[in-house]
Write a structure and sequence with these properties.
The complex is a heterodimer of chains A (305) and B (259). Chain A is mostly helical and 305 residues long. Chain A is 70% helix and 0% strand. In chain A, helix 8 crosses helix 10, helix 9 runs antiparallel to helix 10 and helix 10 packs antiparallel against helix 13. The longest helix of chain A has 33 residues. The relative contact order of chain A is 0.13. Chain B is an all-alpha fold. Chain B contains twelve helices and no strands. The radius of gyration of chain B is 22 Å and the shape is elongated. The chains are: A mainly alpha (305), B mainly alpha (259). The interface between A and B is large, with 103 and 109 residues.
């Protein structure tokens, strides 16, 4: 929004005299942002260097980089970090491919498009907690539709998917793919509808096949938005909480303990505020790299409608 | 398509099943003897009505406030370029990517200082700030769609700045404000993490938090009432999405609607 918007008139910016009404317009939003967002952010960075704990009577002390040093040696943290990275990759990649397929399908003038569109929106409209509960019903060892289907196909069944050491992570990954699919699809769809139709027609006239038209016309136009949404998806997945909290609570044996669950437990179960804040800082550092990718995508015009 | 639809259909089906059928080892898609008992039992087991009202109140207030404070700021962001609007745009982008856990601890401490832990107004404030990034983003887009020429024409006709905003710009922004507000409503209605951390008294918890109580200890759950309650909690968001369906794509990248 800071860069000139294509096609938006810019001349009013420079000509008008300074105007004190601006502050009057901005303050109502700015105050809560500063007090409840920017302030806590700076506070968290400060907290990360202290031994702050909940419910402790002694004053909080400055401990320097101690929390970070502890994190470095905390095998549980590294485990959750690795799980988080694996999870983010495993969720983001299929999400993107499926969404791309769906978006290409939806961009065509199909007869049942309204139905497809409605279906695509269902997972998006549902609260994450409900999505989690719903999939627990699907995965349920006795009453779940998954095991029942397997039983009818003669493939066994009675499996407790969310409690199995080997199956828990794939099971929650599948749910996350399901839940995040609409957003990615709609984003890509928006990118697709921005591609000028004439380009397609020209390419088709030149005799280009479907695949060639995709690689030479569709994809180049879609790439910035694809990069932006993929890096955002990756970041969001890395920060997931509610789904996994409801599905497995991080279990079994920590197999699905994502970084957010780890930090939540440290902060609000064990009261280690300083330690959890330090961990948050590490996550932000990791996310910044991705954020740079996302910004690069945006700057190339990914978000302009 | 099947992948998208079947979990939801299963939820609906489970919500209407009788206890006998839920206990059977061969559950069917269509309940053999459909019943509303699960819904009644759900309300008996947990303070669903209370939680629903809390959610409704919090989400409605948060949406109204987010649009009320967001619109003027979005107007400035769309029409001016100063260091302040630049910083605000940067904040909008960065806050999309934020691990909430980093903010929640100091936020928890700030709210404790303000005596707003476990209070619905406190939660409303948090949701306003949480919804503002995408609210601002959407609103900036809607402001840009209002031609500056109209405002300039009004100014030439002698309308003051306030009058121009109120009688020229605001009416044109109206529909956009409504859509943005609906998005903010859904995102607050669905939100779980902040509510989980901040709301401790059962009578003040929002619907998503109360829903998790259906899982009980060790994840053992009474499936019927759980499904019934979960289904009910989805209805408002589904209705809103059905209403704004056509506008969904415009809020997309900004629309960190659920997270």
């Amino acid at each position: 929004m800071t860069r000139p918007a294509r096609g938006a008139p810019q001349r009013q910016d420079t000509r008008r005299p300074a105007d004190h009404g601006t502050w009057f317009l901005v303050l109502p939003a700015l105050l809560p942002i500063l007090v409840l967002s920017v302030g806590p952010l700076l506070g968290a960075i400060g907290l990360a260097f202290t031994d702050a704990q909940s419910g402790r009577t002694e004053p909080t002390r400055w401990v320097g980089a101690l929390n970070f040093r502890d994190l470095l040696h905390d095998t549980l943290f590294w485990e959750s970090f690795r799980t988080g990275l694996a999870w983010a990759v495993l969720v983001t990649a299929p999400q993107f491919l499926l969404a791309l397929g769906l978006a290409l399908l939806l961009a065509k003038d199909l007869r049942l498009r309204w139905l497809t569109r409605a279906l695509v929106l269902i997972p998006w409209a549902m609260p994450e907690v409900v999505v989690g509960l719903m999939w627990r019903l699907v995965y349920h060892p006795d009453a779940g539709v998954l095991n029942e289907t397997l039983r009818r196909l003669g493939l066994g069944g009675g499996h407790d998917w969310l409690a199995g050491l080997g199956t828990a992570l794939p099971a929650v990954v599948l749910v996350a793919v399901w839940a995040g699919l609409p957003q990615t699809t709609v984003a890509l769809l928006a990118g697709l509808t921005n591609t000028p139709r004439e380009l397609h027609e020209a390419a088709a006239m030149d005799g280009a096949g479907a695949w060639r038209r995709f690689t030479t016309v569709t994809w180049p136009a879609l790439r910035p938005i694809a990069l932006a949404i993929t890096s955002l998806d990756f970041i969001w997945n890395l920060n997931s909480f509610a789904l996994v909290y409801v599905l497995t609570g991080g279990g079994p044996g920590g197999r699905t303990r994502l970084p957010m669950l780890f930090a939540y437990e440290e902060a609000f179960r064990y009261g280690q505020f300083g330690y959890a804040a330090a961990m948050g800082c590490v996550m932000v550092a990791a996310v910044s790299v991705l954020l740079a990718c996302y910004l690069a995508g945006r700057l190339r015009g990914g978000d302009e409608r | 398509m099947v992948f998208l639809a079947f979990p939801f259909l299963w939820l609906v089906s489970t919500a209407f099943k009788s206890p006998r059928e839920l206990g059977s080892l061969h559950p069917d898609w269509i309940p053999t003897d459909p019943t509303l008992a699960n819904f009644r039992q759900a309300f008996d087991e947990q303070p669903l009505l209370r939680a629903g009202l809390n959610s409704l109140l919090v989400a409605a207030c948060a949406a109204l406030l987010a649009v009320a404070v967001g619109t003027p700021m979005a107007y400035v962001m769309a029409r001016r370029r100063t260091w302040l609007t630049r910083a605000a745009s940067g904040w909008v982008v960065v806050s999309q990517a934020f691990p909430f856990v980093l903010v929640i601890i100091p936020l928890f401490l700030v709210l404790k200082e303000l005596r707003q832990i476990d209070s619905l107004p406190g939660l409303v404030l948090v949701y306003v700030v949480w919804a503002l990034p995408f609210t601002l983003w959407m609103l900036v887009g809607y402001v840009r769609a209002v031609p500056v020429e109209l405002e300039e024409a009004a100014a030439v006709d002698g309308a003051g700045r306030g009058r121009t905003l109120l009688s020229v710009t605001a009416p044109l922004l109206g529909p956009g404000m409504v859509v943005t507000g609906l998005f903010a409503f859904v995102s607050a209605w669905n939100e779980f993490f902040f509510a989980l951390v901040l709301m401790k008294t059962p009578g003040r918890q929002t619907l998503p938090v109360v829903l998790t109580h259906f899982l009980g200890a060790e994840g053992v759950a009474d499936l019927g009432p759980l499904a019934a309650a979960a289904l009910l909690a989805t209805v408002p968001s589904l209705v809103v999405f059905a209403v704004v369906q056509r506008r969904v794509s415009s809020g997309v990248l900004a629309g960190a609607v659920k997270r």
